[in-house]
Specification:
It is a single chain. This protein has 209 residues and is mainly β. 7% of the residues lie in helices and 46% in strands. The chain is built from 1 helix and 15 strands, in the order E-E-E-E-E-E-E-E-E-E-E-E-E-E-E-H. It has one helix at residues 191-205, and strands spanning 8-12, 16-21, 27-32, 43-49, 52-57, 66-71, 76-82, 87-93, 96-101, 109-114, 120-124, 132-137, 142-146, 151-157, 160-170. The strands form 4 sheets. Strands 4-5-6-7 form a 4-stranded antiparallel β-sheet, with no helix packed on it. A 4-stranded antiparallel β-sheet has the order 8-9-10-11, with no helix packed on it. Strands 12-13-14-15 form a 4-stranded antiparallel β-sheet. Strand 14 and strand 15 (160-170) form a beta hairpin. It is globular. The termini are far apart.
Amino acid sequence: TRADGGESLFVAGWTTLHEFDAATGTERASWRSSWFPGVIPAPRAVAMDGENPLVTAWGDQWGGSAVLTWDTATGTAAATVEGFAWPANAIPFMGDLIVVDMGAEEGWQVMRAGGEAMAERHALGVGVVQQPLGLAASEDDLWVTDYATGNVVQLVADGQELAEPELGVELLGGHPFALVDQHAPREGQDATEAVEADRRKAQKKRPEV
């Protein structure tokens, strides 16, 4: 929600970060990618961190990949977290940063970054999630999609990292790219029911071949 009471939708367009008015669809602002410090290298994904967009950006073979908190008022990065090879997605979670890094030494990994300057990092779902990509969270629960298997896996429940991540939904074919906030449980639902309900809705919308 903006200061004027309206709502904005942010879209990572690979070479440009766009801001649209959620009600009218009118573009309000855009920021082109660049390699200069404080500018978005190449936006690949965007989530919201409070009132600010959290942008996942790829660099090149010389570096530059980062997760940036973007200040729309100044058109610059208010905060930058680096040290990821190929970050594909990121969301804030319980004061930390959850990042899918496709270029980690051990392959695709879900990294949890916290502490001072987000320097304390460890992987989640190792050995269970083959190719993590989509992320979704409630206040203290965290899920990830597995692009390789098509499954949705819960990594954190009630604020506790699961020693044995739980299969939330086994999707029917396809390679899921993303989870969205609609998957967060509604009142009276648990996480599995919420994602399963959205999966059924998506199936109904599929055209018959």
